[in-house]
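Good morning,

Both structures are done.
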Amino acid sequence: MGTAIRVMACWAALATMVAGCVVRESRPLTRINATQASSEIPEDELLDVAVHAFDPGVPAEIAKNEQALNKKRIYPDIRQAESRYVATMLRTTLETSGQWGAVRVCPENVQFVDVSVSGKIIESTGAKLALQVTVKDSMGHVWLNNKLYASSADTGSYKTDAALKARDPFQNVYSEVANDMLTAREALTAQNRRDIRRVTQLEFAKDLAPQAMDGYLGRDQKGFVRVTRLPATDDPISSRIDRIRQRDSGVVDTVNGYYASFADQMTESYGQWRRASFQEIEKEQRTLNQARTRTYLGAAAVVASVFVPQQCGLYDYNCRRLSTGVRTAAAIGGAASILSGLKKYSDAKTHAQALKELSESFQNDVAPQVVDVEGRTLKLTGTAEEQYREWRELLHQMYLEDRGLPSDELNNQGSRDPN
């Protein structure tokens, strides 16, 4: 009789112990901000930055397996939108720091820029963001090489709509990238920064006029691009190329404005989706923990009811009735706990389905937008890079037209692929 009571007491103690494993409420994170410029940076050292749209990070092996994607909380349409949104948020962080020149979100084929940033989304839910980031300059120096940045959500941003608008829940990630880029830039000398700007300018010129600009750039023993000589200040070819580069900058600015507009349009609905995603993930995790607790305790109770030793005397009927009651209660309670645990597992699936439905509804809010650039239509559905590629060909044609070449030579030279 005493053993049965002790077993039941142990079961109750186990219940208390395992129940403590339930997920506790997340606390707001310590905020990280991008370091702001404290003094004016000389113009010839002010590096321009191109932030390319991130790789959405949809694994090719499961790209068409909806069930596998849902299990990993990967929703391709949302990831595609996030690839632009993440780039825009990083661009905004860099721009508002005052540490850089022109900072733009650009298609991947915008190549001739002082500093380029590319990356991949490793994980993105309302609860966590993980990015892999690479940064390099026009001379070939790699500042960051596939460095991983990850953070859980700052739950303070989810408290109210105003808080959600005021600060992105993953601003810490963007600030950390910006601060690491600043550290890498500060490791350069003033001459290094000027050289980077010159290399960018000459690379652009060489792409347009490879023969005329041959010999201005070379490579050192480590393979980095360096300036070997500079064109004369009154060189007519350089002057024409500078004018064309200004036109190119205007087109890139327009494309950057489109990315910014796209991000602005999706901000509200995306923020709501993230908050709902966070809540669903929290509920699901809590439910799974409760399910495990109840199932384990139920199994322990059933086992205890079976293996409680019989200590009553052969004719001690009161003791036998009490012992049987304890066994029965333990078995019934254990079975009920197991059933409750199974129901919690079912509830967890319901929450996961709700998250999927939220994601599907969000897809309608991030439909591709259209913008006209120089009379040409650009779309952020892959068409943007194609349109910019066409624009690059137009740049070659403009250069050839400025030289007054015959139409047949113009067509032959202007039709080459600039990329």
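Second structure follows.
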Amino acid sequence: MRTDVIVLGAGIVGLGLALNLQERGRSVVLVDRSGPGEGTSFGNAGLIQREAVMPYTFPDDPMTLIQAALNIRVDAYYQMSSLKAVAPWLYEYWRHSSDEKVAQSAAARAPLFEICLTEHDKLAAAAGATAQLRRGGWLKVFSKEKSLADEIGKVNELEAFGINAEICDHRKLSQMEPHLTGDLIGAVHWKDPYSLAEPLALSQAYAALFEKRGGKFVEGDARSLQQEGDGWSVETTDGRISARDCVVALGPWASDVTVPLGYDLPLGVKRGYHMHYRTKGNAMLNLPVLDGDTGYLIAPMTHGIRLTTGAEFAERDAPPSYVQLERAEPVARSIFPLGDRVDPEPWLGRRPCTPDMVPVMGPAPRHKGLWFTFAHAHHGLTLAGSAGRFMAELIVGETPFCDPAPYRVDRF
């Protein structure tokens, strides 16, 4: 089989790219070992975060650092058996968390986040999935004065990026979410973002549009990628597929392809878990809610209230550890009446990140026709449309809507 572009990875990032390539007249084959959206894209918090311009950074508060070192926090946890392997990346992450480097990362991220909603609007409209993009934003709630004050500072800082937010006192919060309990003193309502009732359903809608336009999804192993003649080929269940251009959109599994080709990029993996719960009585949650003091999120979804954990630092393929979920669940129950667990076991996902929290996007420096787009740092869903447009513009030779330099593969 011959096509214009092979996209390795059928997560939401690969799907966004494939649709943008089709809009520019390219034929595309998506290759993955599982169905569209069934990997990392399956288990996220379901937020398209217009406000997330500033990167998540390594903590600098002394108490936070002490708690992290003692491994007693809810929002961050490390597996001792993986510490030696992940320590070099953590050091680079710390090094890129200075004020100067954070400002550089925010400037690089800003153009992608600025159009993230409108690009999803276009894709969802074409896919007949507009109803899946729920307006209303999300809430970050607090029980501590200092934490709330720090978040208000972020609100002021993000005004320069055109971000809309409302500061809510306890009364306003109670009106918005009457079934929240506990000693919450207030919240910040981030008003711009969209939320999803079912992240997998959006991926499936995009995949259906891709196939309706003539695209083909096939199962295959990206590690079979080979350079041949003037292009690339990969082995699939439908036989070997060839194309002039190939894009690695494999998220945390990108290194399985890039390292053998000589690109040993600093790709870290922040692992995370989720579980769905029934609610007690007639309790309802209107918007996704992030506990800003503890570091977990609860969100109303199709299968119940989804609780997602913070970041677990471990090797990508290390066995699961449910410590964070076990720590977060009782705290979540103290602010919302969660009922029984729904899922037979917690879901484990892997979020690929660079130390500067800026994605890797662009051509492979030493291989013609090979392109990279991964490491979107917690925001693959958010950036699927804007990153897809950016990469498609590069691949077809258009002038991209923003400067490619901050995302270049060789910046490290």
